[in-house]
Design brief:
The structure holds two protein chains of two kinds. By secondary structure, chain A is α/β, with parallel strands linked by helices. Chain A has four helices and eight strands; from the N terminus they run αβαβββαβαβββ. Chain A has a domain at 62-155: Nucleotidyltransferase, domain 5. In chain A, α3 (91-103) packs parallel to α4. The radius of gyration of chain A is 30 Å and the shape is elongated. The chains are: A alpha/beta, B alpha/beta.
Chain lengths: 160, 154
Amino acid sequence: MRIRNTEHREHIVLQMTPMIDIVFQLLVFFVFTFKIILPEGDFNIRMPSASASLSSQPTETPLLKVRLRAAPSGELAQVQLGDVVLAGAAPFAKLHQEIRSLVDDAGGPGSTEQEVEIEADYELKYRYAMHAITAITGYLDDNGEQHKLVERVRFAPLPQ
Amino acid sequence: MRFRPKGVSKIVEGDLTPMIDMTFQLIAFFMLVINFSDAEQDQRVKLPASELARPPAAPYEQPLTIHVTHDGHFIYAGNELTELARLRSELLRETQIILRHTSKQLGDVTVIIRADENAKTGLVQEIIAICQELKFEKFALRGKQEKVNTVGSS
């Protein structure tokens, strides 16, 4: 049995250069392909053309009309639910309360039959239309859970 | 003046361990946050906020994304268009491609509308009207997810 001479063991030098090269290549790749994606979400609406929607079955639930009036600057001037003007500092909160009382979501999943038509002025800034859609379609409870109110929302046809 | 003897100079080796540690930390970070999804976002569009805007449960199949900037321009397929007529012709071409090369119906295609919060609502309605005319039926109005209540703040 041969016993190695431990006195003359070779000193092994680990080559770090290739590893560092690759690591930096990876780092550069990830840095260049990195893009910040903001969290976005959708409101899904099904809006067939007027002729197609007329041929579909009419519902017995009356159509609710929300009118959004704009000032010349595009800011919100007035919110109206049917013939009722919702005045005050937070008209969309009032709109939400009105829709909630009409739909009566106490314990239910909201209304699948009720349809709301939004008639907005052309110049109105889009964020107000989005606020109206948010007020109509649902709300978040204290636990952050989403509850639906009205699922069928559409825009009124533009005046010719 | 004293000179150091040249014969006894040592090879100075830098300690690479902290640098390699840091580099691996960076790689691990970028690997975790990297997103290869082809989400169509555009810096020119600032979306309106909504606490109810949630990402779709399942990704849309072949969605069409139309951006509307605050100055009334449209961005479709990477091209900035200034007129609705141009957008209409682009969408018409798209419908022909869908009908010829896929088995999908236009009613099943989702049109994603990413409009700036200061864009005119009428422009969005006009886009919807054009899409309806071309037989599109499904629309997704895109908003920025917000944790705070946006309805009461307006």
